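Justification of computing resources. Each target in the renewal requires a structure prediction run like the one illustrated here; the chain below, 220 residues long, is used simply to show the kind of job we budget for.
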Amino acid sequence: MKRLMISAAMLSFLAAPALSADYAPRAGSVIAFDVMRGESPMGTHTITFERDGDRLVATTDIDLRVSFGPVTFFRYEHEAREIWVGDRLVSFTSETFKDGNDLDVAAEREGDQLTIDGMTYEEEEVSLTLPASLALSSHWRGYDPAASVIFNTETGQEMEVEIEQLGTETITVMGRQIEATRIRMAGSLTVDLWYGPDGEWVKCAFEARGETITYVRRDA
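Resulting structure tokens:
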């Protein structure tokens, strides 16, 4: 297991401002998207929530693929489990299949830090410690616009980002028009994200491999 040594000064540099998320999912809440590649269905992205008092478990399940007849040209699978107590992330685990690679992440909170066993995209194992205040790249909690680093849920490592607020606009979600706040997050990928009046994640769009990918909310 490769050990990444990060000094206290580096941790201070990496720490993002505290995340403030308005969205408070109830027990049994589900955020479900159909993922479209242009006009063609590509798969699904679903987050389910279990709650017991202040304890919240968020489970993400993503299944994307592009096929032509019996041949699959692209496949992406991601399963993750976040455990929160109030606004404190207690633990995180994920399994990802991406570009033919299998990635595993396990993180546990110790004080104000996360102790993490993760993997590079080349499937090289790494162990590291990062501030527990870093926002996860799972999107559903939103992002502090001042954040410059977030937690990559595929690898368990830090990911540099630039977040831009694009204002409020009217969009259609599940047949209803709502006012949504739009942000743009540029990192390994540039992603536009929309959040409803209560902070609930309602839409996503980005460009990948020359294709426009759009997340369309649907009833669970």
